[in-house]
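so the lab meeting is tmrw and i was supposed to have these ready like two days ago... anyway. pasting both below. for each one the top line is the aa sequence and the line under it is the structure tokens. i havent really looked at them closely yet so no promises
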Amino acid sequence: GSHFRNEFYQGLTLKQRGYVSVAEWTLPEFAEFKFDYVSNQRPLQGSKALSPSLWEGILLEMHESPCTPEEKIAVLRSISHNFFLNSMQMRQLLGYFKTSEQRAEAFLTFYLRIVDLYNSKLFLVRFESAEEVA
């Protein structure tokens, strides 16, 4: 299935407006509704992660970019639907970001794009505590 998350209408979350779910809310005909769309479909069997050379190129571009970590995460999120990662690539990505909030965003962006989730121990060590993963 698919889901909305981080729903905002006129600068407030729907929870701040008293709604438990976007399904309870009626979309008005004016103003702006912002949200993140999440699909919980796992990669199909046989899906391939990015090649090592392409992944290294992405990491190098991120390192050389003057953008903030939050801007880099936003760019990664905008292209994440185009490729898959393996567990080692997820480990490298999580190691790139310094704060637990940044790691959490990167993790949420790519978790359902990991082709070898059975190797999750490779990237779970990048979290400082069990609470970060929960």
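ok protien two:
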Amino acid sequence: MRGADEMIDVEAFKSKIQKGKFDNCYIFAGSDERVIKECVNMIINANLREDEKSFNLNRYDGEKTTFDEIFTSSETMPFMSNVRVVEVFRANFFRDSEKDNRSKSLVEDLQKYAGNIPKNTILIFYYIYKDTREKPSKKLSKFKKNSTIVTVGKLKGAALQKKVKDVFNSKGGKIERSDLNFFCSMVENDMEIINNEIDKLIAYTNGEAITRKDIEKLVPSKSDNDIFNLVDYLSQKKIKEAIEIYNELIFKGEKPTSILRMIQRQYSMILKIKLLYQKGKRNDEISRELGLHPYICEKMGIQSKKFKNESLRKILDLSLKLERTLKSSTIDSNIEMEMFMIKTLRV
């Protein structure tokens, strides 16, 4: 084993693994954490039996670990095994945006060490992109000589449909091709979310074939998910993250007025759910009354606990005022939307 001096995609990585070709150092970077974890586990399971893992597999949090810790584990001889695997998750020090002294020092030390990793050690790093616009870090180019860098992008088109169909099959779900295509167009392109939505559909249909009607009823649209997360960030007073989601929606082609209407609908539904909870209604009663799936109702119910009734009413008033403002052609809609989000933190 040695570094592969290359940057490859997931399919190329899997092809090499299936041929039994392993390298000493891997760095995974991408937007789909579930796919990255699948790749990491492919390396681990191909090299270590279950009974070998307790002695020969070390896992470290990249937000907390040190170079000395990684170095010591990597230099330790395997115990009753041919290979030792060292995994560093949340290796965010590889990001271009991470410029603190710790990240800089760690990257420099690892760069020097990458060419000297023992032949019986496999060192694995991975980090997840913050949003769809993030690209592989420029820092990674320094590791190409002695490492295999695997970029994990979102699956699209036929590749996504094949992967999703495989997940349905593995879970015993029945779905026709046209309904599968519709599901793929509706769901967020993230394998963790896709798996959760498939579980939800299979449980709901109870062995029957999944139809478009089931999907429309249970699966929130991509924009709905984004709005839920945006409002959730606002409830936690994380304005930076909320604005990032807003910018993502604009990047995807949504208009400020459309985003505002979705935010209004979310806050309005949260208030309705909160008031019904205060009347002693149960989750199943509320979901029937408002026409929501119990799972979605439960999620919004949890969200409602983060707001006071009066705060929700004030936010809705602010949104109505902003709606009138956005009809003017002389204002910057994006700035007005950002100001609105900031104001919601103060009510």
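from a quick look at the 2nd one: The mean pLDDT is 91. Residues 233 and 241 are 6 Å apart (CA to CA). will dig more after coffe
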